[in-house]
């Protein structure tokens, strides 16, 4: 685990460490890609660089799914700040490259300084502040983000966030009458914000599916069609996710060590 004192920098470059900014180039401002399942709900089909995005309720699964597209960038580095309970196996299941993930578990009251330093070295930062964020502090960090082009994904509210996303409804599958294992969650994700995102957009997803990834509710996983799990999930996806409805078939246990 990386601590604030271990953030790669000039000393790391001298000693030949693999640092985040070693592979970065001066990319133009634009969009940070997201998994295809989430493009429909985002007004720009991606995350606008240099902005802060709020994930209402701090839903960790949605946070990780939004961050997964960073692996498609040339730099490909991300950071997690103030998320000591982050499941690394779940992060990898959603698509994050753990070899390019910096983790500052408990920065305490110094989280803002850690974010400021990391913003110049990574493409995306996942953050859970240690308390309410004063608007003046959010404005100062917004200036840092604009200069660096880094995307800040915040688990919880953020003053002046360009976009707000959240899970409006969700239902887990897999548990029977006192037995079983959670294997997937169907959710409805809503996005709203400023400009073109003022009006809410919604999309229904598996978050995660039985493989630990995010995908549209009616899309089958990328696996062998003869696999019983694929057929089971296809049947389950066709059933509306209402509290009164019980699916006839459930997917098998996940192939990841943990799900969020």
Mind explaining what this structure looks like?
Helix 4 links the parallel strand 4 and strand 5. With about 260 residues, the chain is of the alpha/beta class. It has 7 helices and 11 strands. About 40% of the residues are buried. Helices cover about 20% and strands about 25% of the residues. Helix 5 (about 110-120) packs parallel to helix 6 (about 135-150). The protein has a 9-stranded mixed sheet, with helices on both faces. It has helices spanning about 10-15, 35-40, 60-65, 90-95, 110-120, 135-150, 230-235, and strands spanning about 30, 45-50, 50-55, 80, 100-105, 125, 150-155, 165-175, 180-195, 200-205, 215.
Features:
single chain; 260 residues; alpha/beta; 9-stranded mixed beta sheet; 7 helices; disordered N terminus; disordered C terminus
Set down the secondary structure blueprint:
Layout: H1 10-14, E1 31-32, H2 36-39, E2 47-48, E3 52-55, H3 60-67, E4 78-81, H4 88-94, E5 101-104, H5 111-119, E6 124-127, H6 135-148, E7 151-155, E8 163-175, E9 180-193, E10 201-206, E11 215-216, H7 228-237
Helix pairs in contact: 5-6
Question: What's this, in brief?
Answer:
This protein has 260 residues and is an alpha/beta fold. Helices cover 22% and strands 23% of the residues. It has helices spanning 10-14, 36-39, 60-67, 88-94, 111-119, 135-148, 228-237; strands at residues 31-32, 47-48, 52-55, 78-81, 101-104, 124-127, 151-155, 163-175, 180-193, 201-206, 215-216.
Question: What average pLDDT do the residues reach?
Answer: 77
Query: C-alpha Rg, in Å?
Result: 19 Å
Residue share in helix? 10-25%
Oligomeric state of the chains present here: single chain
Structural class by helix and strand composition: alpha/beta
Q: What overall form do the CA principal axes indicate? A: globular
Strand line-up in the sheet with most strands:
5-4-6-7-3-8-9-10-11
The tally of beta strands, per DSSP, is 11
Task: Assess the beta-strand content as a share of residues.
Answer: 15-25%
Number of helices: 7
> How is the biggest beta sheet arranged?
9 strands, mixed
**What low-confidence regions span 5 or more consecutive residues with pLDDT below 50?**
1-28, 224-260
Question: What is the succession of H and E elements?
Answer: HEHEEHEHEHEHEEEEEH
Q: Give the CA-CA distance, first to last residue.
A: 20 Å
